[in-house]
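Provenance

Sequences were taken from public entries as deposited. Structures were produced by running a predictor on each sequence independently, with no templates supplied. The record for Maleate cis-trans isomerase from Streptomyces rishiriensis is shown for reference.
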Amino acid sequence: MDLFSLPRLGVVVPPENPTAEPEFNSLVGSGMNVYTSRFPVTPGIGLREMLDLYNEVLPETLGNFGGMRLDAAVVACSASHYLLDPEGDRAYCAELSARAGFPVQSSTQAILAVCEALGVTRLTLVSPYQPWLSDTSLAFWERAGLTVDGLLLVPAATDPAGGEHYDPYEVSTGAILRRIREHGLPDDTAVLFTGTGMGTLAALTELAREQPHRTLLTSNLASAWWARRAVGGGAEETHPLLRRLERGAA
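Predicted structure for Maleate cis-trans isomerase:
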């Protein structure tokens, strides 16, 4: 196989995100080459202001690929796109695609696309975000026409006094599984693990064995599914979770 003849996927990620590239590479396997551009570092500003800034500088950050030929790109930052309503998010992606000359999709729009393909109308959210941002996520999905049956928060840590620390990049597989087993999941609902920075593949692999008929979605999994639809790639090289999702959407 000629390595450099493979489809090229660009991925835009926050600067501190340690999860997106490893998960994308694991999901799409050797059938696609993945390249990244990172949002700027934003010292000294709050989370909301940082997410607003990401939306402002997204065209420039995509432009950092320069003259490299890309077949498609994914914006792997769900949180910033929750601040846009679903229609605004869709319109922004269309504008970016027209400007770039190749398809550009947000992880949020990729999730909506896979929900449509699967016929999913109900979600339970598993969120590593601070409560206000988790609520913003919930409102985004409801405005998109989905019913949210539950919201399960997964903090990265809990202090002895019961205070919860939220950081998607620090959430462990054990924390995800422990929270789900403590609180349970509603029957007959798809589960969406939101956010591109929370590592989920190990937890999803275990849950897929335990609940083989439940639809399991993540921001990165849906984005990889969309990318393969957009640019192709060998199915035999992909992660089992992606093959499972593609079978369900066939």
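The radius of gyration is 17 Å.
Residues 47-63 form the longest helix (17 residues).
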